[in-house]
Specification:
This protein is mostly helical and about 250 residues long. Helix content is about 80%, strand content about 0%. It is built from 11 helices and 2 strands, in the order ααββααααααααα. A two-stranded antiparallel sheet has the order 1-2. Mean pLDDT is about 85; it is low at about 1-10.
Amino acid sequence: MNAQVSGQISLGKVFGVEVSDELRGIVREPAALFFSVLMPVGFFALFVSLFGKFSEGGMSAGTTMIATFGAFGVISVVLMNPGLGVAADRDRGWLRAKQVSAVPISVTLVAKVVAALPYAAGVLIAMTATAAVSGALTAPLPALLRVLVVLVAGALPFAMLSLAIGFQVGPGAGAAVLNALLIPTSVVSGLWMPLEIMPAFFRDVAVFLPNYHLAELARAQLTGGPVLSHVLYLIGFAIVASVLAAVSYRHARS
């Protein structure tokens, strides 16, 4: 029994070290830091300064942007960082060394995902603070907290997709592939501009994209809109992304 408890404590310490190392790694990687943290906040600051005080369904546009640009922000963080970290580890042979070390590879992979979450929350907090400073924030604190929880939790399936890609390509190609997924799907999903002013084709495609459903689930926390269809879609996406990550990992090991 004591050995089992001691093993759990040791594994917990190893996990803590892994998470701490990954947190520092995100800051040390300029491309990941720019595309996943600085760019979303910068875009939000620009758009909220231009359109934030307009009214949108009885709520300021700056407040609803917390849901849409917030979805873009958290997806940027969790889509870029775990996958690029895995790709870099594979490139320098570190992941293969991990596979034969005493530390379970699952601990390393979970640490990569967990380390991205504080940055995702930080992006949302920075956007909320920017909206407040600009005078465009009208939602109460409980609603904003619900948005934060929904977006951070709902972004986890994107982390699995990121790992799936990271197991298949190198770090240079990984950044290109992940950005090629992130930017177009975010635009078509209406995360930058409302779908109402976009071409009808965008609205037809958006309902098939997880970005759209995450943003709408977050927006529902502010407007009281329906949530069930968005939750079910994201659960299905999580299952598919997890299967892809598992298959990609097995392929990378072979």
